[in-house]
Amino acid sequence: MSSSTFQSPSEDGNFTDDVVALVQKEIGGDLKSLKKVSGLLEQLTLENKQLEEQVLTVSSSVPLRVSAALSTAEESRVKLESLLEKERLLSNTLQQHLQGAQVWADSIGQVLAQLDTLERHMKYLQCLARIEELSDSIQQYLMTNSMWDAVSAIDRMASLDMGLWESGCSHLQAFLRETLCFWHKILKDKLASDFEEVLTQFHWPFISPPTQTLSPPANVQELNSQLELLVSQLLSLQTSDDLISEKRETPSRPGQSQTPPLSLPIQIMLLPLSKRFRYHFTGNRQTNNLSKPEWFLTQVLIWMGNSSNFMDEKIQPILDRAGAKVNVELCRGLLTLAQEKLAQDTPLLLYDDALFCHLVDEVLQFEKELRSTHSYPRAYPGVLHILLEETVFQKWLSVERKMAVEKVDAMLSAEGAWSSQYKDITDVDELKAPDCAETFMTLLLVITERYRALPCPRAQLSFLALQKELVDDFRIRLTQVMKEESRQPLSPRYCAILNAANYISTVLSDWGDNVFFLQLQQAAVSVGEEILGPLGATETGRLASLEGSLFEALLALLERLRGDMLGRLLDAVMRDVKEKAQPYCKDRWISLPSQSDQATMSLSSSACPMMLCLRDHLLQLQQMLCLPLFQMFWQGLAERLNSFIYGDLILYNHFNEGGAAQLQYDMTRNLFPLFGHYCKRPENFFKHVKEACIILTLKVGPALLLCDMLKQSEEEEGILNHQQPSPESALNELGVYKLAPSDVQILLNLRSAWLNQAHC
C-alpha cells in the first residue's frame, strides 16, 4: 500500500472519522484481513518518521533565509537614502545655475529679437530697393525703347508681387501693386497703341465681309513682322495683366465649364467691336429691342464670320508659335458680349410667354450656328447655360408644356385630324398615321431637338419627363375619343385612332434604341430619381443593363389600348359574320347530294352572305388599317373563324358524304383563299376546320379502320403494346396533327347513318 492511501485530516479537525475511514478501507468487515494490521502500522510509522525529519529540516533553514533577506533590505535602504541626498544636492545646484543663467538668456533673447527685427527691416528695404531697381530699369528701357527688356522687368515685378501674397506687409504689397500698375499701364498703353495702329493698316475691325477690292498694304512684310512682335510682347504681359485685373476663373453655372481669361492681344482686338456692340444694343437705341434678340445674336455671328480668315491666317499662327494654349479666342470674346446681353435681357422676358419663346428659339438657333458653322469647341460654354438658370429653366419648361397642350388641342380639333395626308401615296403611307398623331410626334421630335444640345443631363431628363407626360396625356385623349367611337368600331375614325396608337408606339420603340435616348437612359440611372421619380431596383437594373427603355411604361399602356381596340374591332366583325353565317350553319348537311351526283361543285348558296361579308370587311380594313395592325387583325379573325366554324357548324351538324364534300369545298376553295391574299398557306390558320374536313371526307374503309383503332386504343389505355401503332401516329399519317383522338371520335360519329351502326 502506498503512502497516498492515507488521507490527511479534514479541515474541521475530525481526525477520528479519518482513522475509521482508513481502517474500513484497508481491512473492512473481513476478519481474515486483520493480518494486514501489522503491515499498515509499520507503513504509518515510517511515514510519520519521514514527516518529522522534514519538519526539523525546514525549521532549521528558515531563520537563515529570513536573516539574509533582512540584511539585503537594509543595504538597499542605505543606498536609496544616499541617492536621494545626491539628487537633492544636484537639484539645488542646478536651480542656482538656472537662476544665474536666466539673466544671460533674457539678455540674449533681446538681442535675437533685435536681430530678427533688423533682418526683417533689411529684407523690407531690400524688397523696396528691388522694386526701385526694377522701376528704374523699366523707365530706362522705355526711354531707350527696349520693349522686350521692359516686358521682362514687368514680368519679374509681377513675380515679386505674387511672392508677397502670403506676407503680412500690406503697405509694401500696396506700394508694389501701385508701382506695377503704373508701369504696366504705361507699357500696355504703348504696346496697345502700336498694336491698334498695325491692326488699322490691316483694315481691322472687319465690320462687313472682307472683299478682294481692298488692296493689301504695300509694306505687308514689315507689318507682319510688327504684328508678330507686338502680339508676342502683349502675350508676355499676360501674367501681370491678369494679376492687376485679378481675373479668376468664374464659378461655373449648371452645364457651364470653366474657361481661362482672354489673352491680352484678343482683349485689345475686341475693344472696337465691344464699343460698337454696346452702342447699338444698350440704352435707348432702336436696335436695342427686347423683342428682337436675333439682332444682336446675328451681329455677333456676322463678326465671327467676317474675322475668321484674318484670325486664322494672321493671329492664330503667332499665338501657336508663342506657345499660347488658346484657340477661337475672338469667338470666345464676342460670345461674352452675347452672354452678358442675354443675362441682362432674359429676366425681363419671364412674364411674356411669346417674347420668351422667341428668345429661346433664337438662343437655340444661335447655339446651333455657333457649334456647326463656326466650329466652336463644345468644351467651351456657349449661351445655353443662360437658359439653365433655375428660374429661367422652370419658365422654359412651363411654356413648353403650355404651348404643347395648346397645339395638341388644336390638332385634335382640326377638320382633317383623323385622315392621313399621305393616303393617296401607297409607298409613303405604310403606317397610315392620321395627321393628329403625326403632328404630335413631330411636336415631340421638335422638343427633342430643342433640348438635345443642352449640356446638363438633369435638364435633358426634365424635358424627357415633360415628353412622357405629353405622350400619356395624348394616350388618354385617344382613349376618350375611342370610347366615343366604340359604337361604330368599323368606322374610319375608329381605325384612325387605332393607327394613331400604333404609330406612336412604333416611334417610341425606335426612340428607345436611339443613341441619344440610350445616353439619357444611363444618366437616368444615376440622377433620374430626382426628376423622373422613384424607379425601383428592378427598373433601375433593367435601365442600367439596357434591357428596358425609358418609354417602357408608356409602351405597355399603348399596347393595352391597341389590344383593346383590336379586340373590339374583331368582336364587331365576328358579330356581323356570325349573323350572316346562321343559314349556312343550319344547312342540311346530312342530306346534300354526293359529289358524283353533281356536274360541278360550287359554293353553297347559304355561305355566300358570310363569304361576301368576310371579303368586304377584309378589303375595307386593309384600306383603313396599317399593315402591322391589319396582319394582327386578319390573323385574329382567322383564329376566331376557325373556332366558330368548328364549334358552331361542324360539331352541331351531321354530315353525309355529299355534305362533307361540300363543306370541304367551301372551306378549301372559298374561305381559305380569302385569306390567301395575305399569306402563302392560309389553311394553317384554320387547322381545326382543315383537319375536321379530312376526317369527315375519309372513305368508308379507312374511316372504319380508324374508328376500330381508336376504340381499341381506348380500351387498351394504360397497356403498352409496341406492335400496335399509337392513335397519334395514325392520325399524323392522315394529316391530322391538331385534333386529339377524342375529337376525331366525335367527328367520326358526326358522319351519316351508314357509320352509326359502328358507333365510334
From TrEMBL:
Belongs to the RINT1 family. GO terms for biological process: endoplasmic reticulum to Golgi vesicle-mediated transport; regulation of ER to Golgi vesicle-mediated transport; retrograde vesicle-mediated transport, Golgi to endoplasmic reticulum. The keyword Chloroplast does not apply. Residues 34-61 form a coiled coil. It comes from the Eukaryota. InterPro entries: EXOC6PINT-1/Sec15/Tip20_C_dom2, RINT1_Tip20. PROSITE patterns: RINT1_TIP20. This is RAD50-interacting protein 1. GO terms for cellular component: Dsl1/NZR complex. Keywords: Coiled coil.
